[in-house]
Amino acid sequence: MYAIVKAGGRQEKVTVGETIVIDHLDSKSGASVSFPAVLVVDGATVTSDPKALSSVKVTGEVIDDIKGPKIDILRYKNKTGYRRRQGFRTQHTRVKITAISI
Questions:
Q1: Model's pTM, two decimal places?
Q2: Each residue of 2-52: pLDDT tens digit?
Q3: Which end of the chain, N or C, is less surrounded by CB atoms within 10 Å?
Q4: Which of 57, 80, 49, 78 is nearest to 5 (CA)?
Q5: CA angle (46 as vertex; 41, 47 as ends), nearest 5
Q6: pLDDT reported for residue 71
Q7: Domain residue extents for the chain
């Protein structure tokens, strides 16, 4: 069984026991979070009806907060001596999926 859930502005395919990395959540390590399901596949049964999906709960446990890869930004203009260097790392949250209840 797997589900497609909305997490952090994106859709993620999740199964029970899987660890996913999503956009930053304001939750402490060990906290329980739930995600809205968009689609649920259980063997040959595919559920995509919004009324049926309103009762589906996908829960997970926050493991920790991590940082994404470093993005280097360099602005440069020729012949003027203008240079600006900047870096950025996005904040992510690692979540372990604990249950998909129908």
A1: 0.82
A2: 999 999 789 999 999 999 999 999 999 999 999 999 999 988 889 888 999
A3: N
A4: 57
A5: 100
A6: 96
A7: 2-101
